[in-house]
Amino acid sequence: MAARQKSANFSELEKEILLELIHAKKDIIENKQNDGRMVSKKNTEWTNIEKEFNSRHGVNKRTITQLKSLWKNLKARTKSAVAKERREKKKTGGGPAGKSLDKIASTISEMLPQQINSLQNQYDDDASLHGDEPDDDNEDSDDNDEIMTTNTIQEEAPRMSEESAKQPQTASIASATKRKAAGPGRQDQVKNRLLEMAEIEHCKKMTILQLKEDILKLKKQKLENEIKISERDLPVPQRSTCGGPLVQIQTTTVDISGSHMHNNYYFAYICVH
């Protein structure tokens, strides 16, 4: 079987175009709600972003999966760069930290200040990230902003090995701490998924209850209409010539078998002479 042709790396122009398109829809794209309605909105916006992106001049045709993967990696790389810059400032006592953020990282940091500049685990700040190659194989990637820690640990091994030559005990503690940090992250994902499922189930139950309530209202309305019709069909008495009060008389007849009873209603005037 012929090997799949690898897509071209994302250019700086493509990155800037993607940031421009996402910036206009960031309130939906970066919304942390994961109910069915919000997921549908996100999918719609990503479809619009894909169409707009591929219509621009100077870009390669990209899929939604590739654009999502690039956006996730750009955010993660920006978080790492901001964390590194923060550590460098601490080393210099708050002075200049050397190389500043590039244009892409600065733009993302301004777009998502709370998300990018939030305090992170010190062992996650140096996470090595994917490059700008399109993720052609991961067609089922989701919207999560988290990065798998397996690749992070493997790619940071060379850097940690250099430090371990001087401080073997410190490097060992850092490695163990990072492995422990991966556990709670997975637990949080499972917990969030369970909460989403519970919320969806609750919405379904509420919908069923609403339908039952609507049915009861319709039945009540039907009964009221039937009563009105039966009252309207009663014979209307003629006007009294003697001015006596109008009364309603009920008579009951029973079949010979005694199994059925019939109620008859009459209107009559009582005349006093």
TrEMBL record:
The keyword Coiled coil applies. Residues 133-146 have a biased composition (Acidic residues). InterPro entries: Myb_DNA-bind_5. Residues 78-101, 124-187 are annotated as: Disordered. Residues 156-165 have a biased composition (Basic and acidic residues). Residues 166-175 have a biased composition (Polar residues). Residues 7-84 form the Myb/SANT-like DNA-binding domain. Residues 206-233 form a coiled coil. Keywords: Coiled coil. The keyword Ligase does not apply. It comes from the Eukaryota. This is Myb/SANT-like DNA-binding domain-containing protein.
